[in-house]
Design a protein that fits this description.
By secondary structure, the chain is an alpha+beta fold. Helix content is 26%, strand content 24%. It has a 7-stranded antiparallel beta sheet, with helices on both faces. The longest helix has 24 residues.
Amino acid sequence: MEATSPADRAPTDATPPDGQPSVRPTGGRARSDRSPKDMALSLLVLLVPIALLVAFYRGFLGGEQPTIVDPTPAVEQARAEGAFPVSRPEGLGSDWRTVSARYRAEQGGVTLRIGYLTPEGRGAQLVESNVPADKLLPAELSGGQPQGPADLPGGSWQRYTARSNEQALVLLEPNRTVIVIGDAKENELRELATALR
């Protein structure tokens, strides 16, 4: 067996040169030595509380349920101002949910908007306004085109195409324009328009 030369021996003094603090080896593994299993466990520790919070939000707080609103204040405000005759749906089933309602001044007039979630879970909106039709229709229908008459009671309704995958029913009257629009199927839009009183 060969004797080791002094150059091969490890120094016994661990003091680094230049007066820097000494670095002592730790007994654990370095950060880069973490295994995928360790990382998966760390991630799991974070994800479990998040999953519990989401489940609580959905299960107990109704997180995915739409917020139901009462349209009466907006309708009453529109009727009180008397800018145009105001209609409101009557006789719709309880599976029609009102999710928005507002009455406000817009350029050229005032507009009442009531948004619904239909029984099939689609969106529909009732728009009543005295804004001139030549300004209102392009804004509401995004360049939609008339598709012919709609056989509905209560006036000469017209079918229109609308923005993206929506369609609309439009009633033009001297003092107001009524639009029933949404991505709901035509039978649901017709049901909403027929319910107006």
